[in-house]
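Input (structure):
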């Protein structure tokens, strides 16, 4: 998806919006573009008692006006950390900027211990439906 050969008809019809993606260990990333997909999955039970743990994973996929693909994986784990009921939150954010669908798929798998998780699958399928250049990558084809 080289920006020199962009087919503007493949971009969403609504105007691009400003976006900011958090990056752990780096400056945040800002760009103009479109959110193609966002999917969140929650696991565990809502925190309330000592030791309770709630996890949430959100995956967002964007395309920039320059045809770069941006992926953000955000994991939040809330834990009741002591008997007073205090809740501690751990937030982990990973992101990728690429022009390659294959790199996105590899990134989504590696960010989930080598497997394509539920949030990744839902976001990937939405992005492939919304952005035609990703459509051929929606499924793995075999003969």
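Output (sequence):
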């Amino acid at each position: 998806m080289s920006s020199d050969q962009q087919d503007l008809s493949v971009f969403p019809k609504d105007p691009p919006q400003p976006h900011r993606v958090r990056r752990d260990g780096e400056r945040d990333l800002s760009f103009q573009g479109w959110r193609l997909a966002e999917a969140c999955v929650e696991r565990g039970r809502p925190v309330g008692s000592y030791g309770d743990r709630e996890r949430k994973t959100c995956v967002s996929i964007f395309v920039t006006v320059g045809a770069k693909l941006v992926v953000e994986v955000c994991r939040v784990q809330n834990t009741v950390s002591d008997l007073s009921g205090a809740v501690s939150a751990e937030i982990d954010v990973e992101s990728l900027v690429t022009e390659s669908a294959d790199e996105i798929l590899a990134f989504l798998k590696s960010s989930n211990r080598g497997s394509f998780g539920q949030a990744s699958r839902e976001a990937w399928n939405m992005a492939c439906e919304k952005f035609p250049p990703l459509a051929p990558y929606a499924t793995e084809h075999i003969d």
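Notes: The mean pLDDT is 86. Helices lie at 101-110, 118-130.
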